[in-house]
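Exercise 7.
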Amino acid sequence: MSDHGAIDGFATGWTTLAPFRTDRAYAKVTRRLGADRVSELLVGAFEIDELGVRRHARGAGLGRRLLSALADAAPDGRAWLLAWGEAQDTLAFYRRMAWEEPESLPGNETDIVVFLAPK
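Solution. The predicted structure, written as tokens, is:
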């Protein structure tokens, strides 16, 4: 919360259940990684669905703290998220945070990027 009582950031997520979803961008995740790797890497892990920080509060570490809090509380430390491949600032943020990008299956790149929490 800001000094004025306003919410400056938020994060949401949930544990990824089996069977892996096929709506929204999930089909692209499966195409990118393959069903076996999705089961191994993502099912049972905590999916960070949204992370947002108001523009005036950026650069003060709030996004980093929110992301770390969710990842640290994840089952067995396993967390993941996806981002749009054209969101360069967002991709750079997750890379700075040392989140790992599992390699996509050859020829199955998509417009989304999957990130796994650092170990």
